[in-house]
Amino acid sequence: MTFSRLRLNPTAAALGVVLGVYSWLAFFYLPAGVYWTPDVGLKRIQAANVRWDAGLDLSLDYPGRALDPALRFLPFRENFYYIHQGRVRFSQPPVIAVLSRPLLAWFGPRGEPVMALIAGLVCAWLTARLARSVGAEPAWPAALLAGLATPLMVYSPFLWEHTLGAALALGAVVIVFEARVEWPRAALAGLLLGLAGAVRKELLLLAPVLLMVMGRRGRRLGAACAGAFGLPLLAWWAYAFAASGHPVPPEFRISTTPGLTSLAYFWHAGLGLPADFVFDPRYGGLGDALLLAVVAYALVGWKMPAPWRDLIQAAALAALLAGAWLNRAEPLASGALFGLLSASPFLALAWAGPLAPPARTLRSAAGAYYALTALALGVMTPAGPYLSGLEWGARYSLLAFPLAAPPAWLALRQVWERARTPGQWAARIHFALAVGLSLWSGVWMLTGVSRMRQPTVDAGTRAALLALAEPAVVTNLWWLSAAAPDLYLTRPLFLVDSDEDLRAWLAAARDARITGFVFVSYAPLSEGVAAGLAPPDVRLEIEETRLLPNGMTAGRFTLTDSRQDWPAP
C-alpha cells in the first residue's frame, strides 16, 4: 500500500481533534482533583464508596460515626443524602460513580474524568451519525460544532453523568432517525432511552418526543420502543426502593422535589419565561429583545426573497453576537452561565429556514425537548433556570445542544452555497456572521472551562487542609466535603450550622475523648464564643488561627475534660 492510496476519514479526524481537546483539558489544563461544583465532589465520594460485597452497596463510610452515631453532624446539605436503616446514601444518580470506580482504583484522581470524557466523545460521534441520517453531509463539521462549540466540552472533563446520559439518549435518537428501522432496533432505542432516564432524570422528558417520532414510523415500532423504555426504569425503581424504603426515588423526593406551587418561577417570570431559558435570565430585557431577533431570523427564512432575507438574518445574528459580548461580564465574574443561545448562539442557525423532512423533524424534536425541560423547571420549581446552580450552559437540557447541531450545520452549509453565488453580498455577510457565532461559541466554552481552574477549594487549600494534624475537622460550610472530598474520605469531618449544633458537638467530642479539633470557615471561631458554648466541664483553648490560601481560616483548638475520673470505656 502506498501513501497515495491512504484516505483520511474526515469524521475520524474531527473526532480526533475533539478527543485531543478533551484530553488536554482533562489531563493537562485542569489540575487533578478539581471540584468546581458540589455535585462533582460528591460523585468522587460516591465513587470511593462503591462496594460489591454482597451485591452493589452504595452506602457511605462516615469517618465521624464513632463520635456521631446519631448522624447529626453529617457534612452534607440535606438534599444531597438520605438515611435508611442507619445507612447513609447520596440521593444523586450513582451510575457514573459505579462505572468510574475501577478507573479511580487504577489511575487515582487522573481516572476521574475518563468515563465522562469518553461519553462526550461518543456524543460528538453520534452527532455526526445523526447529521448523516438527516442529510447534513459532510457530517464532520456537525461533530466539531457539537464537540467544541457546545457545553459538551465543559462537562466532559469532570466526574459527572451529564455526558453519559446525553450519549445514551443520542444513541436512541440516532436509531429513531435511521432510514430503515426494524422492531429489534426500535426496542434498542427504547432501552437506551430508558437507561438515559435512569442516569439523568430530565432525560425522561425526551420520551414523549421520541416515542411520538417512532410511533409515526409505525405502531409496532412505537410499541417496541415504549415497552423496552420501561425495562431499565423498572430496574432503577426497584433498586431505589430497596435502598431507600420509599416508593418515590430519592432523586424526586429529596434531591429535587418538583411540584405545582404558587412559588413556581413561571408565576413571577410571566411572559419573560421563554427568554429566561433561551438566554441567561440575567440578560433582563435584552433577552426578550434577542428572542424577538431569533423569531425574526426564523420567520424571514421561509418566504422573503434574497437579498433581504440574508440581510435581515445577518442583522439578527449580529444582534446575538453583540448580546453575547455585552453580557459576558456577569458569567465571567460568577463562573456560571445559564441558557441555550447564551452558551452556544450559533444554534440559532438551526432555525434559518425550511429543511427537508428528516432534518425538519430533528429540529422540531430538539425544540420540543428544550421546551419541555424549560416548562418543567419553570412551572414545577421556584428556581427555574437557576435550579442547576453552577453550570456553563443549560446542563439540564444538555441533550438539546447536540440535537440542534446537525440542523445548524445544514443551515450554515446552505448559506455558504448562496454566498458562493456571484453578487450575493448579503449572503456573504450572513455567512461571515454565522462563522463568527460558531467561533465565539467555541471560545466561550473554553472560557467557561478556564473559570473552573480555580475552584473554591484550590490545590493549595486542599493540601493545607489535609496536612492538619488534629483528629477532627469541624465546619459550618455545607459544601466543604464536596469541594475537598479527600478531606472527608481521610478524617472525621463534621458540619455544625448553629450554636446549638456546636454545643452538642463539643459535648459529644468530650465523651469521645477528642483532645483537639480544627474549625474551618470564612469567619474564625473566637475562643470566647467557643468556650461559652462548651459544657461546664470542658476547657477550650485556641492554639492557632491559620489563614488558608483561598481566604478561609483554620482555627486549631485543644479540648480538655476537667473531670478527674474518666468514664469507663
Topology:
Elements: H1 10-29, H2 38-48, E1 81-84, E2 87-90, H3 95-107, H4 114-133, H5 140-148, H6 152-155, H7 162-176, H8 183-199, H9 206-216, H10 219-244, H11 250-255, H12 265-269, H13 273-278, H14 285-303, H15 308-326, H16 329-334, H17 357-380, H18 400-419, H19 425-450, H20 459-466, E3 473-475, H21 480-483, H22 485-490, E4 493-495, H23 499-511, E5 516-521, H24 527-533, E6 538-547, E7 553-561
Parallel strand pairs: 3-4, 3-5
Antiparallel strand pairs: 1-2, 5-7, 6-7
Helix pairs in contact: 1-4, 1-5, 2-3, 4-5, 4-7, 4-18, 5-18, 7-8, 7-9, 8-9, 8-10, 9-10, 9-17, 14-15, 15-19, 17-18, 18-19
Description:
- The chain is of the alpha/beta class and 569 residues long.
- Among the domains are: 32-108, no CATH class; 161-251, no CATH class; 459-561, D-Maltodextrin-Binding Protein, domain 2, CATH 3.40.190.
- Helices cover 55% and strands 7% of the residues.
- The protein contains 24 helices and seven strands.
- The strands form two sheets. The protein has a five-stranded mixed beta sheet. The protein has a two-stranded antiparallel ribbon with strand order 1-2.
- Strand 1 (81-84) and strand 2 form a beta hairpin.
- The radius of gyration is 26 Å and the shape is globular.
- Mean pLDDT is 92; it is low at 1-6.
